[in-house]
Specification:
Histidine-containing Protein, Chain: A; 87 residues; four-stranded antiparallel sheet; single chain; alpha+beta; globular
Length: 87
């Protein structure tokens, strides 16, 4: 992890379906950093709802949020919060 990068792993409390994917996409769109969401060996840009849903992340699985850029830490924290509170 570089000084400009930040990452966190989250265990999902619920499946990553349309509603949390949409919340994640809206949150991700508000940052200038390059953000990636990883699960099961796949990596997507979390600003796309269908890409996020396409990961197939289910309750109890772990997803990793990575960001690099000027607001990377805030981006990771915000997206981790959305994921940790998914219903």
């Amino acid at each position: 992890m570089t000084a400009a990068g930040h990452e966190i792993a989250i265990v999902l409390p619920a499946h990553l379906h349309a509603r949390p994917a949409g919340q994640l996409a809206r949150a991700a769109a508000g940052f200038t950093s390059s953000i990636r969401l990883e699960h099961g060996g796949r990596t997507v840009n979390p600003t796309g709802v269908l890409a996020v849903m396409g990961l197939g992340a289910t309750a109890g699985s772990t997803v990793t949020v990575r960001a690099e850029g000027p607001d990377a830490e805030r981006a990771v924290t915000a997206l981790a919060d959305v994921l940790a509170n998914a219903e």
